[in-house]
Amino acid sequence: MRHAKKGRALGTDASHTKAILRSLARAVFINERIKTTEARAKEVRGLIDRIITWGKRGDVHSRRLAMGELGDKALVHKIFADTAPRFAEREGGYTRIMKLGPRKGDAAPMVILELVD
Question: Which domains are seen in the chain, by residue range?
């Protein structure tokens, strides 16, 4: 039973799900936009918003939290220096999900997840 388990399983165990989300978050921050399944996009959206909010705070504790989530020092520096200041006036909702339709092979609903300008 899944009592008190938060989030989607994404068809994998907990450690693999965490690795998928970390990889998707990195890809969004590097490329500004990615194509993925709807379930994965909805799940990673919270992590991305949380990291950008940490970047807006900009203190050492926030940097260490972001480093723990992403594991890439150069990427964390890019987020805190370039990405987060773009959203200084925005209270939240830093990502946009645009639906594309079903994937050819398995009919999984596909979306584009991108950072809002």
Answer: 14-115 (3.90.1030.10)
